[in-house]
Design goal:
The protein is built from four helices and nine strands. With 274 residues, it is α+β, with helices and mostly antiparallel strands. A hairpin with a 5-residue loop joins strand 1 and strand 2. The protein is rod-shaped.
Length: 274
Amino acid sequence: MLSLHIVALLIAGAQAAVLTLQSPRLVVSSSSGAQLRSEPISLVQPASTPVTLTKSDTLKLTFQVVEKDGGKGVQPHQTFLRFYDQKSGEEGIQPIRVTNGGKAKFELNMAKPPLSLPPTSEAPLKVSLLIGSPLHSPLTVALFDLVVPASQPAPVHPDEPSFHPLPEIHHTFRSEQKLPPKPISMLFSAVVLAPWLVLFALWSQVSIRVPHLFSPSILPFIATLGAFEGLLVWYWVDLKLGQVLSYGAVLGLVTIFAGKQALSKIGDNRINRK
């Protein structure tokens, strides 16, 4: 089935009518209207002499698109004039309006060049005509070489320096901190631990009496205080602040009731002792 479609397309392409140009002509005139150059355009071979325009000259191009066999005027689906700079690779495409009878006219005024004219250098522009129509074979015609004044350099944007590469950033890291000598470290460690040694030595001289510390009424309060310390350690290791506040609120309520019970028990013990 696919092969039949391909064959049909090949047959349709072979039977498509061929287009050509009739009476193509160029006219170069000055700003005063005087004709500087006027000649027909050969479709076989482009003109050997380039068409030269100054800043005030005007180029007029006229032609008619017709069928090669019958000479009937045709309005193509697409008609473009292509300007191509072989040296820089820049190109510009200018749409051409064609009437129902196939007649077309294009005017290039160098005093107000169109946006389709590419940036130019000293090299001439290759001017060609591109014509496309769904009912006809495509047509490409090399017309002539065009010499126009070189383009002015683009104005420098005020923020243009901001888009240049910046110098490479070289990070300078601080050298590793040197550890103090071991004797100094041991000396300051002893200074830090000395108060604890003194505290334990003094405690050994005092008899600590906590007869009711592990009673059922006081032990829960001591356990909740230890739970608070464990919660702080857990927060330092893993928990987030919101979790600590939630757990601390619940643990605080338990601590309040356990502390009230412990204080009541201690008060009763003091009364009984009297």
